[in-house]
Amino acid sequence: MGEDYYLTFINMVKIPEKKIEIPESVNLEVDARTVKVRGPAGENVLTIRNAVIGVKKENSSIVLFSRGDFTKREKRLINTNAAHIRNMIRGSLKPYEYKLKICSGHFPMSVSLEKESIIVKNFLGEKIARKAKVVNGSNVTIKGDEITVTSSNKEVAGQTAANIEQCTRITNKDRRVFQDGIYIISKGGKSVI
Predict the structure, then answer these.
(1) pLDDT surpassing 90 at residue 190
(2) CATH class given for the domain over 96-191
(3) Cα Rg for the chain, rounded, in angstroms?
(4) Burial tier of 127 (Cβ tally within 10 Å: 0-12, 13-18, 19+)
(5) Which has the closest alpha carbon to 82: 157, 35, 134, 20?
């Protein structure tokens, strides 16, 4: 009786896996630990660094599974990487868009795009211009008092928007009075304010 119970208990344990459906207009390739997603809006690449997680492509879906013992840690890693792949698929279909608002109440500041960076001049009357790095793979446009950042990669678009917002950060003044700066007003089409 003891052995039968042990065998049925072993058969009841499931290997954690996550299945993601691939849309028809998206081309997804799996090469060892690298996942490449190509779509009408762009291309994204993800390398899964954790050796415990396996990746395979089955028909019109991609499957993430655990190679080791089933623990909560493996389940978390699978879910995290599945979320990254879902974001890559969404970005290859429609690029992510972040909008930022330029607010200058005390001093008229000028914002311009030069090569790989955003230059903010005359911020709170400062003589030295502030710079924000534009991450490769993101497109930045400035129209009036609005900055638009677009990219097929969610992390790239978000990092570029954060860099622009952080370059006008004030630490030594009252934020209720000195509201000058550049602020994110929408992330991925959803309003933040």
Answers:
(1) no
(2) alpha beta
(3) 23
(4) exposed
(5) 20
**Domain boundaries along the sequence of the chain:** 14-93, 96-191
State the DSSP string of 50-85: -TTEEEEEETTEEEEEESS---HHHHHHHHHHHHHH
Residue 125 predicted with pLDDT over 90:
no
Quick check: do 14-93 and 96-191 share a fold?
A: yes
183 vs 122: CA distance, rounded Å: 17
Structure-block tokens of residue 97: 């868009």
- 115 against 142, higher pLDDT: 142
pTM of the model: 0.82
Residues 6+ apart with CB under 8 A from 61: 19, 20, 21, 22
In CATH, the number for domain 14-93 is 3.90.930.12
Show Cβ contacts of residue 2 under 8 Å, excluding neighbours closer than 6 positions: none
